[in-house]
Amino acid sequence: MVKRIKLRTLFIGGCITLFFLVLIARVFWIQVVEGSDWQEKAATLWAHTSTIKAERGTISDRNGSVLASDVPAYTVVVNPAVIAEKGIGDEVVKGLHELLGKPEDELRKLIEAKDENGKYLKNREVRNEGWKIDQELADKVKEFYVALGKEHKIQETGIGLVREQKRYYPKGSLAAHILGYTDRDGKAIMGLEKSLDEQLKGSDGKLLYQSDGQGVKLPDSKDTYKPVVNGSNFKLTIDSTIQKYIQEAMEKAYAQYKPKSMSVIAADPNTMEILGMANMPTFNPNEFWKTGAEGAGFYNHAIKSTYEPGSTFKIVTLAAAVEEKLFDPVATFLSGSIRIKGYSKALHDINRSGWGQISFLEGVKRSSNVLFVKLYEMLGQDRLLQYIDDFGFNEKTGIDLPGEAKGFVNPNLNRPIEIATLAYGHGVIGVTPLQQLVAVSAIANGGKLMTPYVVKEVTDPNTGDTKVTQPSVVRQVIDEASAKKTGEYLEQVVADQVKGTGRNAHIEGYRVAGKTGTAIKVEGKDYVKSKVLVSFIGYAPVNDPKIAVIVIIDEPNVEVGGGKAAAPVFKEIVSQSLQYMGVPKLATETSDKDSKKTVKTDAPALRTTPDLTGKTMKEARETLLDQGFDFEVVGEGASVETQYPEAGTKLVQGQRIYLLSKQGDKPTIPKLQGESLRDALEVLTLLKVEIAVEGEGYVSEQIEGTKNGKTLVTLKMKPLNDNSEDVPASSSADEGTESESGP
Asked: Where is the region Disordered (predicted)?
């Protein structure tokens, strides 16, 4: 018995000993042999990561007005299980349909969604109508489900809101093609949002810490912190007010002419800061999905599309001729047509019969193709092509916007006809609107080709450091004196209210230089006269340029030229912008008798005639060009004997000054078309000729003859034209646009 007890005790003791040995071995195995593995698994269970979301940088205009920023957004979610349990499906469908506009059948499918086992799902987002909605709509959704809960006396209705962030553009479509947009997932799609995405989005921060099974942070937690880096903030050169002027003017023209597209760019010609840029059709980045699958509204024609520019390109040829001292404003040529050696067809002006023997300056005013072909012949092929290159037409401008096109000027050097047509903007040439604006800005700023830009400042919110973009000069294309002269000639295109093709761009109180263009478009290898691209490019004020603007209208639905369609758009934008910028109008000097001082007062419509009598004709011409007056020389004498209006006369808009020199046996009769009867009679009286008048209004035609051995001038009068402009109704020879014939 005792022996049996001892054996049992030994057995039990052995088992216990063996158990402890196994336990010790297991503990040793776990803690020593597999200790590192278990340590890693434990660390994984203890470790928690908290992400700190980086804030995407804001984009603002030059005055700090926000154009793009992150704002709170809310996504509507539904719980099919709760909705089914409460039996409120019909009310949920009806209410969300009315608030979000989502079709009822799609909502019903959403709230009745089940898994593969036939059980109702718990949380479903209402996309896309309820995805990242704004605060106002979110408040309405909340009011709805709170009221639904009270009506049914339930706490949970199965409807909720999840707070998120979204990109918001407070000014809607304003500057949309510059800004671009991000989609609902926050992915940058186009514009600055895409090209600056890395700098805008920043990088998320992270906090790594250790906690127990309940999620409570351990006292000896080893924390790791990666700081958040918020995105940089960008201030643009864009002025929201000028951008608004641009888009409002474009909307009117777009509605009137229903073109394929429109583009407008405005810049400060002294720095090439882009003040505004817009295209039609356009889009609202807050509702980008409404633009349509074809995506026409997303295309930034201002920097991506290339066109045959037409007459606006004549500015380059003119500037080259002025720089080379080849342009004499009083030299004459026979307008109408011109032939190029080796080419069977003649090149024509829009008025194929021409205007007779006219001066070079009148050729600029009338946008004569023949004149610019003659200037090409004077310059020669190599010099013209070199100036085209120097003005930047075979390279990108370098603007800090994505997708800029290079353009091309690629004539066959063995075909002089292709170089000749380049002189007036037709042929083997394709330029962007921005390239043209950069070129004309070089005329405005004294001959400097500059790099355009839209990013004015970049601020790092994490450090407070700000980087400011400085204006950059690419090269000096022409000297300052040549640029000034070229600008004065371009001013005559606008100032001459009879001959100037740009007269509709005239702005009361400001000196405006500009050039119209109407390019017939090519389809295949042929020019199609029914499809044109009309444009106007210019700057103001000529004496101290503050803004340069180009207007492009592609395929208007009626026959119209750049002078009639694009120039008024330019006028509306620039006149508003100059006043907004505080640029003073032209002032006249008046005498203050009490203080015996000369006081300058704004008198935009009443500039006074300078005293030119006794000056040489050359001095008089230079004075009038420098001050931007429209004038005509009568006679071939070397000095001014009389002038009309006389010195000190206050001039109304578009009134011309006549410089009369010594007359021969037969007096030289100036062209009086467009003049009032009073002005025409005054000039003819000074010339001591007989006068006959037919009709009323303004001079539309003049006929020279003789009566009793004296010169007789018959004036035929007509009322103002249909546009109510202070110019006569067009005669049949001049009707239509100033569009140019293709080769």
From this structure: 717-743
